[in-house]
Amino acid sequence: MKKILMVYNPVSGNAKFKRRLDDIIETFQRRKILLATYRTTPNDTARDFYECVKVFNPCGIISAGGDGTLHAVINWLMKLEFDLPVGIIGSGTSNDFATHLKISDDEEYFDAIADNQTLTVDLGLVNEHEYFINVASAGALTAIAHEVDARQKNSLGKIAYYLHGLSEIPNFKSVQLKIFADGQNFNVDAFLFLVLNSPAVAGLKKVVDAAQIDDGKLDFIAIKKCSPQKIFSLTKKIFSGNCVDDGTNIFNVQAKNFEISSTTNLTSDVDGEIGDALPLKISCIPSAIKIFVKF
């Protein structure tokens, strides 16, 4: 039998995934796959994961949780140099990367895992020590994921972010950003910025239509300083999942390597997790990891 290790977060999303464990195990056993489970905790380390992989010796990893769980799995694999494909069972409040790849935990997806159907994708690397599969960001709105009460997230889902984001608009302050992108220098007065590996961040899909997860580049997006009415409109579109197509208030540049600094103290957010303070050096790592997908 094939062996796969599933890393699952027992409290992500509405915390109901753990009730599905027996069904998930049975689903894989029908496909001649032995599934082992690793239950995440706030104190997990790469060493814990290393020992689990070494003991079980799987041919693949499944991340069952939200974007934060996937972020942890990707970082463990990359830092420990395990060349294992990753499957995604999205059970968190936010599952942007899985949504972008149209991954859903149905019979067809489990067949794809059993058949070893994979897509090789790029990753981003922040300050040479933290990888991201989806987005690194800083500024207004980006701390909301850490400020929204867990109970509110579980009961309201993404609308909790939306409600909290709208309540913070009167407090938004722009910051001066200096961006060095593959030899080009830019200065932008902005409320927030995002460095994207994929176009799967809320309503920014239309703005970053060129963003691809396998093109060896990252997309820098900034929402420039604008009137309270305009930022309210843009924020509403972002959190409601509609396209943001106002080029006047959006700055966008694509590159392989970025250096981002500001005179304002800013802490980054990396795939929904608290990251380093600016300045940041962000690079694209092309063809870094394989993801199980349906073709």
Quantity of strands, as a count: 15
Globally, the shape reads: elongated
Low-confidence stretches: 152-164
Average per-residue pLDDT, rounded, comes to 84
CATH fold assignment of the largest domain? Tumour Suppressor Smad4
How do the SSEs run, as a string of H and E?
EHEHEHEHHEEEHHHEEEHEEEEE
How far do the termini sit from each other? 24 Å
CATH class of the largest domain: Mainly Beta
Largest beta-sheet details: 11 strands, antiparallel
Please give the CATH architecture of the largest domain: Sandwich
Total discrete domains: 2
In terms of DSSP E residues, the strand content is 25-35%
Q: Provide the helix percentage.
A: 25-40%
Using brief descriptors, characterize the structure shown.
Tumour Suppressor Smad4; 28% helix; 295 residues; Rossmann fold; 2 domains; four-stranded parallel sheet; 9 helices; eleven-stranded antiparallel sheet
Describe the structure.
- With 295 residues, this protein is α+β, with helices and mostly antiparallel strands.
- It folds into two domains: 2-116, Rossmann fold (3-Layer(aba) Sandwich), CATH 3.40.50.10330; 131-286, Tumour Suppressor Smad4 (Sandwich), CATH 2.60.200.40.
- 28% of the residues lie in helices and 35% in strands.
- The chain is built from nine helices and 15 strands.
- The chain has helices at residues 21-29, 46-56, 67-80, 96-100, 107-114, 144-147, 150-156, 158-168, 228-240; strands at 2-8, 33-39, 60-65, 86-90, 118-126, 130-132, 135-139, 175-181, 184-196, 218-224, 250-255, 257-262, 267-270, 273-277, 280-292.
- Strands 5, 6, 7, 8, 9, 10, 11, 12, 13, 14 and 15 form an eleven-stranded antiparallel beta sheet that branches. Strands 2-1-3-4 form a four-stranded parallel beta sheet.
- Helix 7 crosses helix 8 and helix 8 runs antiparallel to helix 9.
- The chain is elongated, with a radius of gyration of 19 Å.
- The protein starts with a strand and ends with a strand.
- The model is unreliable at 152-164 (pLDDT under 50).
